[in-house]
Automatic annotation (TrEMBL):
Keywords: Acyltransferase, Transferase. Its EC number is 2.3.3.10. This is Hydroxymethylglutaryl-CoA synthase. Residues 2-164 form the Hydroxymethylglutaryl-coenzyme A synthase N-terminal domain. Residues 178-248, 256-353 form the Hydroxymethylglutaryl-coenzyme A synthase C-terminal domain. GO terms for molecular function: hydroxymethylglutaryl-CoA synthase activity. It comes from the Bacteria. It is an enzyme of class 2 (transferase). It comes from Oceanobacillus luteolus. PANTHER family: 3-HYDROXY-3-METHYLGLUTARYL COENZYME A SYNTHASE, HYDROXYMETHYLGLUTARYL-COA SYNTHASE. Belongs to the thiolase-like superfamily. HMG-CoA synthase family.
Length: 390
């Protein structure tokens, strides 16, 4: 049975800050952010947007009435969960009006968990061929103002419908994966912001990539020449490039040039959004699919997923006939056009406007948030969500 990504959608919050202006405000050479890290803009979530609303807004644009009936499993990968007990997927299930006879589960393993969701979805579809699965990666990356990690923040979500006979990308079964207990990045339950050992995390990201790539070649006998493009998890866009260049010499000059060009295409959206943790790899895939004008149906795409702590996986997909027809290119172009650039001062104000940490009730002002789905407040320790179009 052919199983894979049938639909894919993306959502970013309505604000962003320009990385050149942020660098200047921090007394840093802008090239450090735009070239050294590889980021042009950073998406910024107002207090009315959290992982749940980002996820629901991403899924809202791609699902139709048939999907609502056939989706019987919602898998939500996030490291920005809002409750220790109740799954964020349950909130999304309700906000989208999905078939009630469904399973809804939140998954966690740093930036890897949406990939785990995809692999679980494949198993579910294999057992239930007429079902569809909604897989979401949504996060808000926070390190704090003026911290070393500030330039690698961001916010957004990618939603995918997994089904048999997919219209976009058939997912192959020969993936390779690796786990090791390390402390390269973590966020304790008591902390709003993440902690990271940056140099060590970069080293481990590349090490894990090399391990799963070597295992993949050993199992399949394939080489770089078999791929039209490789997509990477991108906590910042220079990170994927660092991993890619460790294996480029395995290919001919022609193969190297093709992979380098398509890598640049795959990071265009990420450069404008920043780090969205669980959704970052799939934002790269979306950017590649929507922005390229050379990759043809039948060609193979490699994907590298990495979640600190750490789990890595390399897996592959084959582009389907007329895949471009089933993308939402105009909608995503409009999403980028409609965002509002804010000053560094306004960015700092929005960043520091957080929800009460003591359980107090609050009603949020939503006039400045045009998103279809938003958080309207907290009452009796319960988050109150609104879907404007329902």
């Amino acid at each position: 049975m052919n199983i894979g990504i049938d639909k894919i959608g993306f959502f970013a919050p309505p604000y962003y800050v320009d990385m050149t202006k942020l660098a200047e405000a921090r007394g840093v050479d802008p090239d450090k952010f735009t070239i050294g890290i590889g980021q042009d803009e950073m998406a910024l979530a107002p207090v009315t947007q959290d992982a749940v609303t980002l996820a629901a807004n991403a899924a809202l644009q791609i699902i139709d009435e048939e999907d609502k009936e056939k989706i019987d499993l919602v898998l939500f990968g996030t490291e920005s969960g809002i409750d220790h007990s109740k799954s964020a997927a349950v909130y999304v299930h309700n906000l989208l009006g999905l078939n009630p006879y469904a399973r809804s589960v939140e998954l966690k393993q740093a930036c890897y968990s949406a990939t785990a969701g995809i692999q679980m979805a494949k198993g579910h579809i294999a057992l239930n061929p007429d079902s569809k699965v909604l897989v979401i990666g949504a996060d808000i990356a926070r390190y704090g103002l003026g911290t070393p990690g500030e330039a690698t923040q961001g916010a957004g979500a990618v939603a995918m419908v997994i089904s048999k006979d997919p219209k976009l990308l058939l997912l192959e079964n020969d993936s390779t994966y690796f786990t090791n207990d390390i402390m390269d990045f973590w966020r304790p339950l008591y902390s709003e912001n993440a902690y990271v050992d940056g140099k060590f995390s970069n080293e481990q990201y590349i090490l894990f990539f090399n391990k799963v790539w070597e295992k993949y070649k050993e199992r399949t006998g394939r080489t770089l020449a078999d791929f039209a493009a490789l997509c990477f998890h991108t906590p910042y866009t220079k990170m994927g490039w660092k991993a890619l260049r460790t294996i480029l010499e395995e290919g001919t000059e022609e193969v190297q040039e093709k992979l380098k060009a398509n890598y640049q295409t795959s990071i265009r959206y990420n450069r404008r959004v920043g780090n969205i943790y669980t959704g970052s790899l799939y934002l790269s895939l979306l950017s590649l699919l929507e922005e390229n004008d050379t990759i043809q149906a039948g060609e193979k795409i490699g994907l590298y997923s990495y979640g600190s702590g750490a789990v890595g996986e390399f897996f592959t997909g084959i582009l389907q006939p007329d895949y471009k027809k089933y993308l939402h290119i105009n909608r995503h172009e409009e999403l980028f056009r409609s965002r509002e650039e804010v000053s560094v001062e306004k960015y700092e104000e929005i960043f520091q406007n957080t929800l009460p940490s003591d359980g107090a009730s609050i009603e949020l002002e939503s006039d400045n948030d045009p998103s279809p789905i938003y958080l309207s407040g907290i009452q009796d320790h319960k988050r109150i969500y609104v879907n404007r179009i329902r």
